[in-house]
């Protein structure tokens, strides 16, 4: 899809999406009561507070999962605070106070450096709510649920230090991951596979099968594609492909935070369902990244840059020659090729958004990119993002197509499981 293009969505929301919403966020929730004074969208308000807080946190890029964890904890607390058995029969003021207090309490614990900003945001929300029993109860329940979720997730192995735990690479050999240029730094995200999932029974529950054998037809075609289209300055790559590659060098957590915000803003569902959407999205993305680390470090498959530079180094592929100067269009992240983390993220995000909103938004979503300033892309269906991410990581020279396709499958599998099991978190 080209820059700025819009494809109008003609796919109606199906019965499967309705069932998924009922399972995940309780379709029995009552519609909010109208209140007399001018109102703000408390979900969108605290979504923006959450984004500002998490983005300002001292969390390295190598621990993206820690950011999703902060979102998951705070919004799961909010969803629990306004679940039907607590909110039914309560005025709208209760829900507003409960959401604000739950997210405020959780983020105050997780990002204490933003305490002043969080306190100011809470004061703004509570200042709109008339003093009374509903407000007091909302504040109390919101805080209680935040403390409950925080306690449950204590020492879950998703702090940056644990996520990036030490990983000694195997002895150099064909197919075995080794630190990649230009820094040849230590592996990152290897510790995520030991973390406590939210809903997976085990990090290995959806472990992928092995990547193609060295020298196989698929292996050879994968490398041939990335060698030609993923090399820096490739003459075979079109300008559009280059722009797509640059656009999706950005963090998937940052990109999809904007996508999810658009879905939240457009949603006309009851407040509980909207808050639940943010919660289960981030829960599923935490579990997906844990599962990604499990598969990555189980197989520890070398990156294209390593494979291409050592093409005849006993890898069973005598039909190619090494290219010691081959350099990918983008800098290779310091973790194995299989599966692609960008694509596990995209696959999981697509699965959650499709289950909860249908095949795409009511109005096409436009997002930008920190790695392609001034570039904006518009999407009318969630699958369009996945398709672009899949191609982009090949055109960047970072992954084989097999690693990208397997990543999408893994992400979808984890997300679909978490959607089915989400009721466990909201009891």
TrEMBL record:
Residues in the signal sequence:
1-36
| Residue ranges, compositional bias (Low complexity) | 318-328
Give the start-end ranges of region Disordered.
155-180, 310-330
- Please tell me whether the keyword Signal is annotated for this protein: yes
Q: Which SUPFAM superfamilies match?
A: Acid phosphatase/Vanadium-dependent haloperoxidase (SSF48317)
Q: Taxonomically, which superkingdom?
A: Bacteria
Q: Which CDD domains match?
A: PAP2_haloperoxidase
* The keyword Signal appears for this protein: yes
Q: Give UniProt keywords alphabetically.
A: Signal
Protein name per its UniProtKB record = PAP2 superfamily protein
Organism of provenance: Saccharopolyspora antimicrobica
């Amino acid at each position: 899809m080209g820059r700025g293009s819009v494809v109008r969505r003609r796919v109606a929301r199906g019965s499967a999406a309705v069932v998924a919403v009922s399972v995940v966020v309780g379709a029995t929730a009552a519609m909010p009561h109208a209140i007399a004074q001018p109102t703000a969208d408390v979900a969108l308000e605290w979504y923006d507070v959450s984004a500002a807080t998490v983005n300002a946190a001292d969390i390295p890029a190598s621990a993206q999962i820690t950011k999703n964890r902060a979102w998951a904890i705070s919004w799961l607390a909010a969803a629990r605070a306004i679940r039907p058995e607590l909110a039914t029969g309560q005025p709208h003021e209760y829900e507003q106070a409960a959401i604000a207090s739950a997210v405020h309490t959780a983020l105050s614990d997780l990002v204490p450096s933003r305490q002043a900003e969080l306190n100011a945001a809470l004061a703004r929300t509570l200042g709109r709510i008339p003093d009374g029993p509903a407000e007091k109860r909302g504040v109390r329940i919101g805080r209680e649920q935040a403390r409950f979720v925080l306690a449950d997730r204590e020492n879950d192995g998703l702090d940056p230090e644990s996520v990036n735990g030490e990983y000694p690479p195997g002895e150099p050999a064909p197919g075995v991951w080794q630190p990649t240029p230009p820094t040849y730094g230590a592996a990152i995200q290897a510790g995520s596979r030991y973390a406590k999932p939210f809903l997976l029974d085990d990090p290995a529950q959806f472990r992928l099968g092995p990547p193609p054998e060295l020298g196989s037809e698929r292996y050879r075609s994968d490398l041939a594609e990335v060698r030609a289209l993923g090399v820096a300055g490739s003459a075979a790559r079109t300008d559009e492909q280059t722009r797509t590659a640059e656009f999706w060098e950005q963090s998937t957590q940052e990109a999809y935070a904007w996508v999810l915000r658009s879905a939240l803003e457009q949603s006309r569902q009851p407040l509980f369902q909207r808050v639940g959407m943010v919660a289960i999205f981030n829960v599923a993305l935490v579990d997906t990244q844990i599962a990604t680390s499990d598969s990555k470090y189980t197989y520890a498959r070398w990156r294209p840059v390593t494979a291409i530079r050592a093409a005849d180094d006993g890898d069973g592929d005598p039909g190619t020659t090494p290219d010691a100067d081959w350099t990918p269009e983008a800098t290779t992240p310091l973790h194995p090729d299989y599966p692609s983390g960008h694509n596990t993220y995209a696959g999981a995000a697509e699965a959650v958004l499709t289950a909860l909103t249908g095949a795409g938004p009511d109005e096409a979503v436009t997002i930008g990119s920190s790695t392609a300033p001034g570039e904006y892309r518009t999407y009318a269906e969630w699958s369009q993002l996945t398709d672009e991410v899949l191609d982009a990581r090949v055109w960047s020279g970072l992954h084989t197509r097999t690693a990208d396709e397997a990543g999408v499958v893994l992400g979808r599998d984890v997300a679909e499981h978490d959607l089915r099991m989400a009721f466990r978190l909201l009891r």
